[in-house]
Amino acid sequence: MKRNFAMLGVAVILAGVMAGCSASGASTACKAEGSNVTICLNTKPIDFSTSKTKPHSHEAGSIYAPGKVLASALSVPFDAQVAPDGKSAKVTVNGKAFEPAMPSGAKGVHVHDGEAYVPVKEFADAAGLKVDVKADQGTAGIAK
Out of 92, 96, 106, 124, which could bridge 102 as a Cys pair, Cβ 3.0 to 4.6 Å? Predict the structure, then answer.
């Protein structure tokens, strides 16, 4: 009986140590919510209800989100200056400038309804966060 309690104590200690792992061990799992693109932080969906246009995809493998909402949820420095014509924006994430087109030729920063949208993978990379984008499933999971 004493041995069982000792084993249980060791198991509890190990579970506590594992739960205290660094953010790099956090899960990026994210489940799609209906037919919408879903972006999660530490497995919990980020609320984009304040944006006129929701997260979306344009090309296979690329998911885009309103940078201001994404930066707020992730506590990442963000600046966007939307051009007066409302068709383009200059964006910096964590001090790194984003371009209108990505080196792969995919769309980069673009504007919808006056908001600057950023590619989620590149945004997370610039912020030093772990990300798993599954555009075919409409999900992007970010671990902080």
Answer: 106
Q: Torsion over CA of 69, 132, 45 and 24, rounded to 10 degrees?
A: -90
Rounded distance, CA 8 to CA 14, Å?
10
Query: 36: how many CB neighbours lie within 10 A of its CB?
Result: 14
Please tell me the distance from the alpha carbon of residue 70 to that of residue 65, in angstroms, as a whole number. Answer: 7
- Any idea what the Cα angle at residue 113 is, between residues 107 and 116, rounded to 5°? 45
- The residue among 92, 87, 94 whose CA lies nearest residue 112 is 87
Cα separation, 113 vs 122, in Å, equals: 22
β-partners of residue 133 are 140
Helix-, strand-, coil-residue percentages of the chain, each rounded to 5:
30, 30, 40
Domain ranges in the chain are: 24-143
Provide the token pair at 98. Answer: 């984003």
96-125 pLDDT tens trace:
888 777 766 667 888 999 999 999 998 999
DSSP code, position 125? H
> Quick check: 108 and 91 in contact, CB under 8 A?
no
Spatial contact of 30 and 38, defined as CB atoms under 8 Å apart? yes
